[in-house]
Design goal:
Layout (H helix, E strand, L loop, with lengths): L2 E4 H13 L17 E2 H6 L7 E2 L1 E4 L6 E3 L1
Parallel strand pairs: 2-3
Antiparallel strand pairs: 1-4, 4-5
Length: about 70
Amino acid sequence: MARRVPALTIVAVVLAAACGDAGGEAGLSLPPADGGSTISQAIGEDMPSGWIRGFIVAERNEPVRICE
């Protein structure tokens, strides 16, 4: 059975944990109205940054995939 977790949730959790100073100017921004770049757009960029919209699919005994 596949388990789908929104990639934005994973990205938000990782970035929030990496921020360090929760009270400062630097930190996690709100997602853009369109949800950010698609997986295809992010792969096509040399160094993607910002919000990426998609899903992480993790099936038991299978590689983790990022899907649109």
